[in-house]
Specification:
This protein is α/β, with parallel strands linked by helices. The chain is built from seven helices and six strands; from the N terminus they run βαβαβαααβααββ. The model has no long low-confidence stretch (mean pLDDT about 95). It holds the Pfam family His_Phos_1. Keywords: Hydrolase. This is Histidine phosphatase family protein.
């Protein structure tokens, strides 16, 4: 039985003009994950990733720590939703920069509300697919893994939204649980699915075993 390793990107640039870039710490998180796997002799038979810069940069960091990997297949269906468009669909006035704990919490409260409305089909954020189309892209990637990679180790690098959608698909969770999972996935965290002939099954969720060693406690981030 093979294993699908779903990795959320390293810390990006939350609050900056361009979020879609890894921070220096995000690059370190990714490289550390690759080194952790190298130390344990893990190798991958196939690699899937979204097309966003933070996905590619995370994969580059993992490869730097791990060593040789197969050529990645880039799938737009693994790209993250547009959080700014979601919030704009439920909040007319622009939000202030989330540079305080209170503003940070307000940002994510609005995002959770917008996610719930998007998933229910009550809002259509500008420039975004419907929730049904978004989740279909994730399902297509999972089906590709199940059909093409039996008995293999597969790496999938994406974002919190697609990863929580994948877990929600496998566990048949209601929308509020999928959103809660989304908000808890940490940067560079690993979730694992076993790849069985008829289905994928969740084995681990949101693991940061590569950051358990002394000296890495301040590397744990969420945004």
């Amino acid at each position: 039985m093979g294993t699908l390793y779903l990795v959320r990107h390293g810390q990006a640039s939350f609050g900056a003009d361009n979020y879609d870039q890894l921070s220096p710490l995000g690059a370190q998180q990714a490289e550390r994950l690759g080194a952790y796997w190298r130390e344990r002799g893990l190798a991958f038979d196939a690699v899937l990733t979204g097309t966003l810069a933070r996905h590619v940069q995370t994969l580059d960091g993992i490869a730097s720590g791990l060593g040789a990997m197969p050529q990645a297949s880039a799938l737009p269906g693994l790209n993250e939703y547009d959080s700014a468009a979601l919030i704009a669909a439920v909040q007319a006035a622009p939000l202030p920069k989330p540079d305080t704990p209170e503003r940070f919490r307000a940002h994510f409260r609005l995002l959770c509300d917008a996610l719930a409305q998007w998933m229910a089909g009550t809002i259509s954020p500008e420039g975004m697919p419907s929730w049904d189309d978004f989740s279909a892209g994730v399902r297509d990637a999972l089906e590709r893994v199940r059909q093409d990679h039996q008995g293999k180790n597969v790496l999938l690098v994406s974002s919190g939204g697609p990863i929580s959608a994948a877990i929600g698909e496998v566990l048949a969770t209601p929308p509020e649980v999928t959103i809660a999972l989304n908000m808890r996935i940490r940067n560079s965290a690993v979730s694992e699915f076993s790849i069985a002939p008829r289905r994928l099954m969740l084995q681990t969720f949101n693991s940061l075993a590569h950051l358990d060693a002394p000296g890495y406690s301040d590397w744990i981030t969420y945004a």
